[in-house]
UniProtKB/TrEMBL annotation:
Primary localization class, coarse: membrane
Bilayer-crossing regions: 56-76, 88-112, 118-138, 150-169, 189-211, 223-252, 272-289, 301-323
InterPro entries, sorted: Cation/H_exchanger_TM (IPR006153), Na+/solute_symporter_sf (IPR038770), NAD(P)-bd_dom_sf (IPR036291), RCK_N (IPR003148)
Similarity section: Belongs to the monovalent cation:proton antiporter 2 (CPA2) transporter (TC 2.A.37) family.
Protein name per UniProt: Cation:proton antiporter
Transmembrane helix keyword on record: yes
Domain of life: Bacteria
Organism name: Roseomonas alba
Length: 570
């Protein structure tokens, strides 16, 4: 057996089981990550059969998290982060404080912990899993919207707090080193400032310049390799030189590179590798699950789980509402972030090694992490249902109205008739608006992003700010006199709710909607009165088929009939 044996065995067996169990989960209409976690349990040291090398699994998982955050950064813009900074900074800090105090109380009651150990235990329960949260938002098409920007800003702040905590753990282990604690905190802050300055000055210019030089050679292999080196090299450098989390370093590298013209190609080249290593990350989570330890303290495990759900999910929802974030976006963020993960594991493991936490805390922590990660799709569904229920409560509607939730950003003309209602003014809605404007057709935009709505209002566009799934917001666009509604929204369930409200006001209204995949398209096409459902890849294929038919001698009329038949599934 060569030295590569454990690495090859871990990769092959781990990925094979992840594929098999992930595929099984998908057949059962469950998220594949549940299969990945089950694969980790199967190769872990606490179940019979093959046992993966825990050191290798943890290292591969760290690479996966770094690549995931690098890919997220490529699609994220610094201006988007700054746009939610006023929400993310105070909100995340307040949530971490509340969750830490709640978790500290749980640690004192369940394990008899003292002051500093209880605070460390509470902090481990206050940090959401970046990998799980971003993956959950991405799978529902929310990562690029207002909820995604808020969540990413919130996660960045949580990561910064974890960086401070990890550096301070050795000093906290000795409660008498107050002077050392202050000096360590100062040194850590200087490291963070140095990292941000290095990325802002060197990374903004150096990374795009180097990749542009590589791209000029015309070698795709070299360009892909350069992108991977940039991602992992920045992650390693951030950790080795500045003591910053590798995942956070990779995220900032992606943000800077995403602003360059090479960002789209860099994102495309890293996606396959990123997906493989992210699967290994979830396998690594399952590998540390110890069934006996998880069942040893059921009362403490339940209290820890409840602390995570209330201190993270509940606190995020409440704080976002207090900061006047629209209820649907707040519910989406809370549902995606109501769990703990990689950084909680790392923080707890280091605290146990330093003697701050007893070994007994590991089991309940694993229970809380595993169950909250597995239940993330359920928490997303429940928070969405909760948002709908809250909005349907009359007293809450009055409270929201008093807080300005239902105000129009720019009231549509009173005499508006036979107009189109465009729900969303992103990449899809913007093109539809330009087409209608070119031919002088009236339309009203409903936009949930306040900054985007303000920009439209300044440009003279009739716009309603708010969530179109709320009756008072949609009614402000006058659906009773509209001819059609264009649902340029990122997810099918939201389209259905908006369509129900619009059709209740105007049964004859024509509807058009977008879909991200065949399942969403089929879901929307079953809706009564849906005029058109557009799915990006399908429409590209139909456009190319139409072009091919007409160029090969098929008449325009016959080509159009064929396209319509294919679109309808005939």
């Amino acid at each position: 057996m060569t030295h590569a044996g454990p690495l090859v065995a871990t990769l092959v067996v781990g990925l094979a089981l992840a594929f098999a169990l992930g595929f099984a989960a998908r057949l059962l209409r469950l998220p594949p990550l549940l299969g990945y976690i089950a694969a980790g349990v199967a190769v872990g040291p606490h179940t019979p059969g093959f046992v993966a090398d825990p050191t290798l699994t943890a290292a591969l998982a760290e690479i996966g998290v770094a690549l995931l955050l690098f890919a997220v950064g490529l699609h994220f813009r610094a201006r988007d982060l700054m746009a939610v900074w006023r929400i993310a900074v105070p909100g995340a800090l307040a949530q971490i404080a509340l969750a830490t105090l709640l978790g500290a109380g749980t640690g004192m009651l369940a394990f008899g912990l003292g002051g500093p150990p209880a605070l460390v235990f509470g902090l481990a329960l206050a940090i959401s899993s970046t990998a799980v949260a971003t993956r959950a938002l991405d799978e529902r098409g929310r990562l690029g919207g207002e909820a995604g920007r808020i969540a990413l800003g919130w996660l960045v702040m949580q990561d910064l707090v974890v960086v401070l905590a990890l550096v301070l753990l050795p000093a906290l282990a000795d409660a008498h080193q107050a002077d050392n604690l202050a000096a360590t905190l100062g040194a850590t802050l200087l490291q963070l400032v140095g990292f941000i300055a290095a990325m802002a000055i060197g990374g903004r210019v150096l990374l795009p310049w180097l990749l542009a030089r590589v791209a000029a050679t015309g070698s795709r292999e070299l360009f892909t390799l350069a992108v991977i080196v940039a991602a992992l090299g920045t992650a390693f450098g951030a950790s080795a030189l500045f003591g910053v989390s590798p995942a956070l370093g990779a995220f900032f590298a992606g943000v800077l590179l995403g602003e360059s013209p090479l960002g789209h190609q860099a994102a495309a080249d890293t996606v396959p590798l990123q997906r493989v290593f992210v699967a290994l990350f979830f396998v690594s989570i399952g590998a540390v699950v110890e069934p006996e330890a998880m069942l040893a303290l059921p009362g403490a495990s339940f209290a820890t789980l409840l602390s995570v759900l209330l201190g993270t999910g509940g606190a995020i929802l409440g704080l976002l509402l207090l900061m006047r974030v629209p209820l649907p976006a707040a519910a989406t963020v809370a549902g995606a972030m109501a769990q703990i993960g990689e950084f909680s594991f790392l923080l707890a493991q280091l605290a146990i090694g330093a003697g701050l936490l007893p070994v007994e805390t590991r089991g309940p922590l694993l229970v809380a992490a595993t169950l909250t990660i597995v239940a993330t799709p359920l928490t997303q569904f429940l928070t969405d249902r909760l948002a709908l229920w809250i909005e349907g409560t009359r007293r809450v509607q009055v409270w929201l109205a008093r807080r300005g939730r239902a105000r129009l950003s720019s009231p549509p003309p009173q005499g508006l008739e036979d107009h189109a209602i465009l729900v969303g003014h992103g990449r899809v809605g913007r093109v539809v608006a330009q087409a209608l404007q070119r031919h002088g057709r009236p339309y009203v935009v409903i936009e949930a992003d306040h900054a985007a709505a303000s920009a439209l209002r300044a440009a003279g566009t009739p716009v309603v700010w708010g969530d179109a799934a709320r009756p008072e917001v949609l009614h402000a666009a006058r659906p009773e006199t509209a001819r059609m509604i264009v649902l340029a929204m990122p997810e099918a369930a939201g389209c259905r709710r908006v369509l129900d409200i619009a059709r209740a006001a105007n049964p004859a209204i024509i509807a058009a909607a977008r879909a991200h995949d065949e399942e969403e398209a089929a879901f929307l096409e079953r809706e009564q009165g849906m005029g058109l459902v557009v799915m990006g890849e399908r429409e590209i294929a139909l456009g190319m088929a139409d072009y091919a038919m007409t160029r090969l001698g098929v008449t325009v009329e016959a080509s159009q009939r064929t396209v319509e038949d294919l679109r309808a599934g005939r």
